[in-house]
Structures are given as C-alpha cells and as structure tokens.
Amino acid sequence: MDVLSALLDGPRAHGAFLLRSVLKPPWSLRIQDEAPLTLVAMLRGDAWMTPDGGQPGQLTEGDIAIVRGVRAYIVADQPHTEPQIIIHPGQRCTTPDGFELHDAMSLGVRSWGNDVTASSTASVMLTGTYQLDGEISQRLLASLPDSFVIAAAEADQRLVSLLADEMSKDQPGQQAVLDRLLDLLLISSLRVGLDRPDGPAPSWYRAYGDPVVGAALRLIEQHPDYSWTVASLAEKCNCSRALLSRQFTNLVGQPPKGYLTEWRLSLAADLLRDPAMTLAAIAQQVGYSSPFALSAAFKRSRGFSPQHLRAS
User: Fold this and answer.
1) What is the pLDDT of residue 224?
2) Are 37 and 132 in contact (CB under 8 A)?
C-alpha cells in the first residue's frame, strides 16, 4: 500500500462536511474552522483565496483548491472585500459581531448562501472538509504547502459534477456515498498536483519513480510485517546493498531501515485507533515480534507509549 492508497484505506472521510455555497457579490468568508484538510471546487464564477499573512490567489471556474492545516484564510469575490461571514470550528457560521447565520442562509439540502435564485452573477463553490487524525495521511499532508490549486483543465470535472449532483440528494446511505466521492476527488487532485514536475511533492514521493528505490518503497509498504534487511531488500530489487542504501538515502532522505521503522509505527498509530485491535495483533501486522518490542520502538520514536496514544 502506498501513501496515497493509505489515504483511502486508512483514515478517510467519515461524515465529512460538504456544502454548496451560492454567493452573489460582494461576499467574503473568513474560514477559521481549524479543519486539517479542505477541498474547494469552483462550480461557477471566480473567487479569491487569501491565507492569513499570505498573498491572494485567484480561483476560476473549474479550479480546485486544496487547503491544508489550521491557519485561517479568506475566500471572497475580490481580495479587498471585508469579511461578512466567519466560519468557526464545527462549521458554525456567524457575522463578525457574532450573529448566527446558519439557518438564515440555508438554501436546502447541503446548500447555503445569500442568493436564493442562484443568479448568473453568483459564484457557486463546493466545499468538502475533512477531520483527519491518522498518521499515515498526516505524513503526506504535512509535506504539502498550506494550499495549492489544480487548474480546471487538470481537474477531474466528472468527479466534481458527480459529487455536486449527489450533494443535492438526501437518500439512505447518502453520507457514505458522499464521503467516498470526496475521497476520490481528493486523491485525483493530489495525484495531479504531486505528479507535476514543479509540484509540491516531497522527495520521498518522487522516489517512487526510481526503478530501484521505488521497488524498495513498495516492498516495505506492501509487506511491513516481513523481517526486511537491507540485504533482503537489495536482493528483491536486483541491486547491491551499497547501491540501494546510497540511492534510497539520497532520494528519500533517510536510510531504508529508518523508513521501514517510520512506516511500521505510522501504520501502528492508525491501527491503535481501532479498539478491536489488540496490541499483540497490531505488533504482528506491522512486523514486530511482540507487543513489548512495538511499545519500545513506539516510545523511542514518539516519546510516548502506544497505550498512551490509544487512551488519548
């Protein structure tokens, strides 16, 4: 399993917040909801996104913005429009002086805004907000910039249209359908961004393109329970130990054994969130001989025990 697959197979959208916003100018939203990850797709019109302390960037129709981290930002019709609406944690929305707006601006199922008629001058945005807490996905997301944009020509508009259509429905199981569609749109967008030659991909992500190091990464990630050594990895990759160690360290930024340990502990951290998994079962699944060995490695790397993480 690679890091992008882990986003879907491990911590994924579960009851994600999804909203279609219809806003006629002048409009400005200050987003301070502290969400770890947000995806914004411009269904119609334009918008400007300005992070606190940063420069404004324009979103045009069909663009997708991925916003990572908890830093506040403003989305508006123009960069100079003062915020009229504040989005707080829990997706609570108010005026700047605290007046509650959620019910006042409701436009139906998962739809909200200040333009009941959805006039041609209104901007229409689709917003999907995650609450991620798994370490595998965090390892990828922490390496990304605070925000980046996938241009309309690169974005998968079929997924955008399908998600927008499903958001207007309110049928049994609808939330599960929306969660999976949001996951697919996120992964599709991340792949586009990370595969750009000048994109935000970290060095270890680009290492997948190397025939030797990419093969070693896949072996580690797909079989974390195997008792890998540099020698056994090199044999599987048809190269010498010296070549594997040198190329792996140069491209990934750490030696093979260090990456193996971090991958195993990240997997363990995710599995610990499942109360049905015993520490012994987790240790076996991620390649440790006993719960004690896993606990010792976890505490050495993280500074606290697996039991502490599970309790928190």
Assistant:
1) 94
2) yes
Query: Which stretches of the chain are DSSP H helices?
Result: 3-9, 135-141, 157-167, 174-195, 203-206, 211-222, 230-236, 241-252, 256-271, 279-285, 291-302, 306-311
The span from the CA of 305 to the CA of 6, in Å, is: 23
Would you say 32 and 124 are in contact if contact means Cβ atoms under 8 Å apart? Answer: no
Asked if residue 70 lies in contact with residue 130, where contact means CB atoms within 8 angstroms, the answer is: no
CB 221 within 8 A of CB 139: no
Q: What is the full DSSP assignment across 238-271? A: TS-HHHHHHHHHHHHSS-HHHHHHHHHHHHHHHH
SS3 content of the chain, % helix, strand, coil (to 5): 40, 20, 40
DSSP, collapsed to helix, strand or coil, labels residue 291 as helix
Question: What is the C-alpha to C-alpha distance for residues 270 and 158, in angstroms, rounded to an integer?
Answer: 31
- What's the token pair of residue 24? 């006629």
Q: Are 263 and 270 in contact (CB under 8 A)?
A: no
Six-digit token pair at 235?
């044999």
Of residues 26, 20, 19, the one with CA closest to residue 121: 26
DSSP string, 187-236: HHHHHHHHHSTTS---HHHHGGGSHHHHHHHHHHHH-TTS---HHHHHHH
Average pLDDT in the 228-250 region? 96
pTM: predicted TM-score of the whole model, two decimal places: 0.79
**For residue 2, what pLDDT band results from cuts at 50, 70 and 90?**
low
